[in-house]
Each structure stands twice: as structure tokens, then as C-alpha cells.
Amino acid sequence: MKIRIDHERCRGAGQCALHAPELFDQSDDDGTVVLLDAEPPPELEDSARLAAALCPNSVITIIES
Amino acid sequence: MRVTEPSPCSTGGPPPTTLPTHRSCPFDPPEEYDRLREQDPVSRLAFPDGKTGWLLTRHQDVRALLADDRFSSDRRRASSPLRTFPLRPDDLQSRAGMLITMDPPEHTRYRRMLTRYFTVRRMRALAPRVEQIVAEHLDAMERSGPPVDLVRAFALPIPSLVICELLGVPYDDRAKFQQWTSTLLRLDTDEETALAARDALRDYMLGLVAVKRFHPDDALLSHLIATQDMQETPQDAELTDEELAGVGRLLLVAGHETTANMLALGTYTLLSNPGQLRAMLDQPESVERAVEELLRYLTIVQFGTIRVAREDVEIDGRHIRAGETVVASLAAANRDPEHFRHPEELDLGREPSQHVAFGHGIHQCLGQQLARVEMEVAFPALFRRFPGLRLAVTPEQVPMRDDMLIYGVHALPLTWDG
Q: Does the record's keyword annotation contain Nucleotide-binding (chain A) (predicted)?
């Protein structure tokens, strides 16, 4: 699995950092998404999918391998 | 300028409905939403100002609308589904800083400045202080003894104090701003009274901003005054006093009234579901899911949120015309059986779902992580301190907030074995 983010769309709601903190953080400068791991290990793939599903601005794209 | 009037001939379908407001159960949205969602999910809606627009009740439509930039959040041309006089921020002074009524790029500028103060990490760091505030209010309840009104003793003061500390608003002024907020959110407030409350709140915030300019503290308003956004052109870099006052009153109102109602109505809901409450208390890690479910189940932004079409748009075969107001029912969306299994059931263990209690799209609640921390701390602490907590009146005697923009209870008389 690969994770892509479209940073321009992010408004910092924080759903990703809340539901998948191993993969996403929020910037101290403007609260927008910081991708910590673009190729999550198998055990975090469900969290990545959940973060993508809950993002209010479709910032996160999951590319299933 | 060409004014497009909706043509009654082209729309077809049943005559326009008015926004459903009658509940038969205090925990459920009006049943009429179920019928609309099933039979007429994009329905014609008659507004009190005489105009006609639309009401969306399906989860997928509500979510799509709120993420669609062909619809505007600018309320200046919108109709209110409940009042003949929508409180439009139509003069520049009242509009400054009101980012919930703005579209990009105006909205983006404010949101970028504010979001860093409300991140998951920063809000979690507030948890120890929230725990302390909660404990102090529980101590006071214990000292005064039963019965207490949970709204006055716990649900309202806790988020009020938290948002005051976060913004740098003196908590001693709470009687004033709670009164203005309540006037603004009451559906039967007349226009003159509502405008007076709005202006009083604005003048109060302007006064506070002036004080902070000379006596800065370590709270958000002072930080915003000091903000120099390097990405902006110089004239946009600093917020004017009007903008600061606008942001300040938006965060103050949104920061205390919403969480206060979730705490009180959530407590009432948990007391009505003792088995699930016990299970939640037995497993501290289950509290996060329980809070999300309460948000979904109760959807206190009971009349939804509105958008205005910027251009002609088709939704499920219905033609929305440019300029028409569309109401997205968050409460109906959060009870959509197409999306949630047994949506009418409270299931505190429900898997994380795409509930829209905080909205969706670019305007999704800025303070949602703060609200989560407050609820995750407050609910377990309350029920652990008073294991025998129960209603001190009959359920019929609990005054529900059918008459307010934000749903909840006006009072929640509780007792326990002292």
C-alpha cells in the first residue's frame, strides 16, 4: 500500500492524526497534515484506509498494492 | 442582473415541505426526516421568508454537498429555514473574522491561522487541565449535595472555563456572554433583540482585543494579535481588531455552547442506557468510540447547515438553481440506514464511521479535537464520582431544547445517594 496526500486541500481537521497517529501528524505551523509513513506496514493498512475515509477534504489517497 | 425565480412547473414532485421540527422521542430527530429520506431525499423546502430551496436528508448527499465548491457558505444571499430574518453578517463589521460564513480564499486565510491552535496534539496536551477543571466542579457538586442541575453545575461551566482559558477571555464575564449566546441561539428571539445581542457580543470582544493589544497574555487572542503570516502579502498579514473580535466571538460561542449541550444531553442519554454505560466505564479504552457514537446519535446541530448554489447543479436528478438555499440535515444524515447499520440504535461500541456531527468539507469543526478531549474526560469522571447518579425528575419533566439552534436540555436535575 502507498499513501499519497494532496496537501493543498488540507484544512487541518485532524481526523488522520486522531485515527492513524502512526502514519499522520499535524504541522505546528498551520495544523495541516504531515505524512509520517507513505508505505505503511500491513498492520497499519486499515488505519490508513480509515483516515482516508474520514478525511473531510479528500486529502488522502490510498493506492492498494 | 438576471434574477432566476424557481419555476414551479419545472420542479415537479410534491409541494414544498417546511423544515421538520417535531420530535416524538427526545433522543431521536423528527420522524418526518425518515419519510423524506426514503421518499423524497432531495426535497423542495419552503423558507419562512417566502422563498423555496432544498432539503437534503441522505448521508451521501449531505456529505457530497458539504464537499462541493459549487455551493457557497456565504450567508448573505441565503434564506434561514427557521427565521424570517436570517441573522446575516451583511455589513463588513459583522462579517469580519466570521470564517464559517466564508468561502476560499477568504476562509482559507483564517483557517490556516487558527488550525495550529486546535491540533490533536495540542488538545490532548490540555487534558490534564481539563481533568482538573472537571474534578473541581465534581467537588463543588459533592459539597452542595443532591439534587443539582447538571447544566449549571457541570455541563455549561466546564467548556466555558476551558474556552475562556484557551482564548484569554475573563471567566468572570461568563454571565454576560452566556446570556448573549443564549439570546442568539433562541429561535423565538425577535430581530431587534438578536441584533442587540450580536452587537453587544461584538463590542465586548472589541474591548477585549483592545486590552490584549496593550496587555498581551499567553492565550490565543494575544497569539493571533502577534501573528505575522509570512505567506501572505503584508496588508493581509495582520488581523484587524474587527477580524480578531469576529474570530474571538465565533470561537467563544462555538466553544462553550456546543460541548455544554453534548455533555448534558450525553449524560441524559447514558443514564437512559445503563447497560452500555456500565460497559463503557469498565473499559476506559472504549470511551473514544462511545463519544463518537453520542455525537452521531444526538447530532445537536439539530437544524443542519446551509449552503447556497453558486451555479445550477443537479443532485439525484433534481435541478438546484443558482442562488437557491440548500439545507443539509446533519441529523437525518447521521440516521441514514444506507450508511449506518441500525442507525436508530445507540451502540457505544460502533465502529468509527463517517458521521457528520462536526460537518464535512472545509468547514468541518475547527474545535472538534477539543470537544472530544472535554467529553472523554468529563463523562467517565462524572459517573465514577457519582455511581448512583440518576434523574431527580421524571423524563417528561426534563426541558428539551426544541426551541434552540443547538439541541440539548435546558436543565438536567440529577440526584445521587449522598
A: no
Amino acid identity, residue B304?
G
Interface contact flag, A13 B368, Cβ < 8 Å: yes
Q: How far is CA B348 from CA B212, B262, B301, B352, B371, in A?
A: 43, 15, 20, 10, 17
What are the structural domains of chain B? 16-415 (1.10.630.10)
Structural domain for A44, as ranges:
2-63
Chain B CA closest to residue A52:
B354
Residue pLDDT, tens place only, B18-30: 999 999 999 999 9
Residue type for A25, please? D
What pLDDT band is residue B90 in, cutting at 50, 70 and 90?
Answer: low
CB contact under 8 A, A30 and B115: yes
Q: What is the CATH number of the domain that holds A41?
A: 3.30.70.20
Order of strands, edge to edge, in the sheet holding B148-149? B148-149, B413-415, B390-391
Which residues on chain A are in Cβ contact (under 8 Å) with B121? 17, 25-26
How far apart CA B341 and CA B27 sit, in angstroms, is 17
DSSP bridge partners of A25: A34
How many angstroms away from the CA of A2 is the closest CA of chain B? Answer: 22
- Please tell me the distance from the alpha carbon of residue B404 to that of residue B187, in angstroms, as a whole number: 5
Interchain CB distance below 8 Å, A11 and B111: yes
Question: CB pairs below 8 Å between A and B: how many?
Answer: 68
